[in-house]
Amino acid sequence: MIKRVAVIGGGIAGMEAAGLLASRGYDVLLVEKEQDLGGNVAKWDRLFPSKTPASDIVNKIKLGLSPSIKVLTNRTVTRMIRNNDNFALLLSDETLEKVDAILVTTGFQVFDALRKEEYGYGIYDNVITSVDLERMFASKKVLCKNGKEPKCVAFIHCVGSRDEKVNNHYCSRVCCITAVKQAIEMKELYPTADVYCFYMDLRMFGRYYEDFYHDAQAKYSVSFVRGRLSEAGETHDNKIVLKAEDTLIGKPLKVTVDMLVLMTGMESPDTTENLSACLELEQGNDRFITPADPYIHNNCTHRRGIFVAGACTAPKNIPETLADARSAVVAIEDYLFTYTD
Amino acid sequence: MIVDGKRKIWKDYQKEIPDDHYFYVRSCIRQNFFPASEVMFLKIMRDELACDIYENEYHTTCSGIGYHCDVVPMETTMTVIARQFALMTEAGYKNYAASCITSFGLYSEVIETWRHFPDLLKKIRKNLKEATGREFEIPEYLSHASDIIYKVRHDIAAKGKYRLINRFTGRPLKVVEHVGCHYSKMFPHKGIGGAEYPYVLAGMIEAWGGEVVDYPERRHCCGFGFRQYFIKANRGYSIANTHKKFESMEPFKPDMIITNCPGCPYFLDRWQYAIAEMEGKTYGEDGHGIPVFTYEEVASIVLGYNPWDMGLQVHQVAVEPLLNKIGISYNPEEKYKGFNNEDMGHPEKPVNLKTY
Amino acid sequence: MINFGYNINKSSRIDLDKDLNIAKKIVKIEPSFRTCIGCGCCTSTCSANNFTVFNLRKIQLQINRGELQSIRKEVEKCMLCGKCQMICPRGINTRNIILAIFKVID
Hints:
The structure holds three protein chains of three kinds.
Chain A: E1 4-8, H1 12-23, E2 27-31, H2 54-63, E3 70-72, E4 77-83, E5 86-91, E6 96-99, E7 101-104, E8 109-110, E9 127-129, H3 130-138, E10 152-159, H4 174-189, E11 194-199, H5 209-218, E12 223-226, E13 231-234, E14 240-246, E15 251-257, E16 259-264, E17 266-267, H6 272-279, E18 306-308, H7 318-338
Parallel strand pairs in A: 1-2, 1-7, 2-3, 7-18, 9-16, 10-11, 10-16, 11-12
Antiparallel strand pairs in A: 4-5, 5-6, 8-17, 13-14, 14-15
Chain B: H1 3-12, E1 22-25, H2 30-33, H3 37-48, E2 53-55, H4 64-68, H5 74-90, E3 95-98, H6 101-116, H7 118-132, E4 141-144, H8 145-151, H9 153-159, E5 174-178, H10 181-184, H11 200-207, E6 211-213, H12 227-230, H13 235-249, E7 256-259, H14 263-279, E8 292-294, H15 295-303, H16 320-326
Parallel strand pairs in B: 1-2, 1-3, 3-4, 5-6, 5-7, 7-8
Helix pairs in contact in B: 3-15, 5-7, 6-7, 8-11
Chain C: E1 14-15, H1 21-29, H2 41-45, H3 56-64, H4 71-75, H5 83-87, H6 94-105
Helix pairs in contact in C: 1-6
């Protein structure tokens, strides 16, 4: 009998795993809470460090989805009933789906910048997030609220990451390199603009990331200031005044910018709590889902037959997410091969 | 500025403010700086709004100034505060209203400390009993007097004779609000609107017809800072902070400033004189300063009280330009007349800061 | 003007809104001027720094932030030995930077 696998979450991890499971002969159900597949990556313009359009990657992964996969969008899982090694999943539209294994690929949500009140997001016109800026890049219109080109732009790293005040102690990892990418793109658009990056540490962990950072400094003359933004205020002509410390000089610093970009980090989605309760999964103190162990069984959970992949277990970049999705497929295949119903 | 964004944040910081029956404690210094503000508060609450606000002549300082100058230890402060609470308890009240921001902050801090350290509360109860024979209950509701005026702001607007509108242009007056540091910076959830964008004074400005000015150094301290001012050698820091605020608000051309702290209006008012006389710089129109008010004074202006009855003549920065803008009639001859029309004498005129 | 016995203290903060042209001119002459990562290798190996207060890492940072008060006097301490250039992990042309600073500041 053909085994059936439910993949919960239709971002890049879910799509990659669903495609591979289907091509290996499994019957696959892909559940997505939003209207379209693609998750967070589909909302991005270009990717670091190659500047490849995000849509290229999403579309390539989508090509791997065979028509045999049952895709259910606008739906979430509300209840799970386990019967030995079989699961019945109750979906938000009251339908019931029977499966043999479950893969959770619910990814991340972007930190809500409104929670950093002192940065003025949602209050000052020219304070935007990295997500907003991607949207601007995609629409080829990167302008201040008054329609003018920005002459001075600041990027603030670690917004919603490494911050006790918002209960996110961890590093979201990709914001540093995203800031470098967006700073370069800003300079490509406006070569005479002054562009500042306010960072705590620069975490350039991936291949070519450091080169990208070097380019930002040497080719594009982006200024990197070590120090965290303490507060932003608005001038009478809608510019943003920043207060920070240059911690390498050891003095407070003031700069007035036309546009402030907040590098919002990754959070475990708000829906994780409900999903974890219904699938009996464990969440860490960072609210991401905890796998069975972080090294060898990193795609397994503490519950037999339930697997995890992608950013639902920790902030990950795209190659890591896709590799994790593929390794989850192997783990699921191993599992389904060994049990008989 | 996106006002809807602020409203969203303001919604997150709500506070329960009782309608009536308050035990009211005055500030140590306000009666000297802005002598009629507390009287006007009592008048508005009692005469205009028929509320029960009780005062007791036996209350003392909360010891906040000494505490913040590092000369009064915490336990002493707590026992002094316990005595104030005992007076409230004896008078049969459960709602406590503080006129002073630093007192309000200190009461909040002490009550919160007791909540975390019940043994300390026990000890303070014992201290008070041994020292005075008194016993006390912790207030059920702690409000700053500006919370209460905030709560009745629409009633004041409805009864008001004037609005914060420039009668020559028909435009709302541009009002800078300055909230005392100790109001909500320590406990954002104990202040209306939180600590980043407090709504307590902004709500009054809106209700009374004005427009709130949000300038980059809005959150910055007025410059008082206790030790920074009290010790003359530090005074340059005090005035530098005030100077920074004025430089930041200047491009917005504010018509007036409203405050809710004892020290802030004093320093924002008097330092304008000192800056003008030290460096020749003034921030208002035609060599004037920007008039600075307490919220009780602004409420009284809206309600149509005589400016000289609410003590506006002791302000350093002349208030007349603002009174003229609103269209308030006043008799310049009466400005320096005290009780029984007796002449109080005229202050010396500054050289650089224009006065009336 | 009245002397009250105290002055309005001057702000000690860095103001990036002021003219940062000196830094921009140096970048034009030597683009690697912006690529410092603040590791401090140059300073630790510097012959001058071991005997006087001379810190190349700090000097480049101060120029980039427009803090120019003591720069002229500071750079004179450099003996152009080139040890910093040998050690710099980012390959910054430090000698050219010192020369560029002289050119631009004078």
